Amino acid sequence: MATKKASAKPRREPMSRVDTAWLRMCRPTNPMMITGVLMFDEPMTLDTLKQVIRKRFLAYPRFLQKAVDTPAGASWVTDPDFDLDWHVRLSALPGRHDPKSEKKALERFTSQMASTPLDKTKPLWQFHLIERYGTGSALVARIHHSYADGIALVQVLLSLTDTSRKPDAGEDLRSAWLKKDGAEVVRRVGAIDRYVQIGGKVLGKGMEMMQDPTLATMLAKEGGEIGRELLHALSLSDDPPTLLRGKLGVSKRVAWAEPLDLEEVKAVGRACDCTVNDVLMAAAAGALRSYMLERGEQLDGVTLRATVPVNLRPLEHARKLGNHFGLVFLDLPVGEDNPVRRLERVAECMRDLKNSRQAIVAFGLLAALGMAPSAIQGVALELFSRKATAVATNVPGPQQPLYMGGSRLRDMMFWVPQTGSIGIGVSILSYNGRVHFGLIADAKLIPDPDAVIRRFGPEFEKLLYLSLMGSWEQTLDAPAASALLS
Q: Is the whole-model pTM more than 0.85?
């Protein structure tokens, strides 16, 4: 059997404060797993996959370690009984399927995996290979958030791939597509220790500061922009009650849409003077709006928030693992019926967030949360999760075909976990000239995620049509847009 044993002498390393926070955020209603799906044009065997995992994935020593949490703190400890056969296993979809029903079967299987916690006595990751899917195979990956953030783990999954079916010696995917964004990250982050220190002071008061009239004075003493950002985050109102919020269960539902053409998305962005991310998030807001209206929700003037992870390190450093990201609150104007106005509002909010330090303030709070007593952790987690309805991620992937074990990667999608009382996750990933949109939701809130994701394409088509019209600001008001595009 293909089994790999770790060193007999367990290796122990202290876990970072932020990684500890994510380890301790696990709830039966929200397992802290990042779940990914990769689909291949050609079949892949289990032996081939294991060879890739041995050579590429286990090149990261962290994945030979399990998380051990004690009152004194959490640590990474090498698993002396590591068994590759347990972590990389063969799965099958039930029955015989045509392409449409086969996709549904894979979505159900992925939903089951996203709902099932990982075994805490072992390293917290697993790969499930479906040998027969379409003309090839599919792979479902589950990795605990404590190992790394979603941005880093996407890089890890991509490090399992090559840029050609038979890679040349020394081929390096990073040089083929990773952006050099180090300077921009440094500008955003600044003195990171300062934010962690202030986050500790916030949590040290046990969140009592929410009713403490001296809060503003304390924050003012801590200085300028940091204090203002923290005060803003703490003073945000709770998101309004809608059918997308409610008591969570233990079952997740997953679905993904047919991909969009990336060049068309870029064309809309150029026409509307906004970014690709703005266009995609506006389309996602439109899809949620349409779904909610069909189910009788009253949305006039309603704005929901999504927490959006922001990378706080250069992408070329993402393979160092660990969690190095902050969170910002993005407005999703689901109460706006004009698609273009909806896009304008998303773009305006994005511009404001780019000029703020909200993300690094959140990172400081997460770092402090990792060392806080469990009672304070629970209060803090609930406090912040009430301020948003969804978690939204948008990760730019390589714009060229990739191969794993000689099989061409056709499509891929991933979802980060939701936290606290948040039960909706929106995920956007671009790869090889196409944009993939996926949704993960608590089954009690959205039992039919396909009813949301199938609206994503039509919502984008509205924006594409209006952008092609040219001077839409002068020619199309909201009622006309609704009538024309309905």
A: no
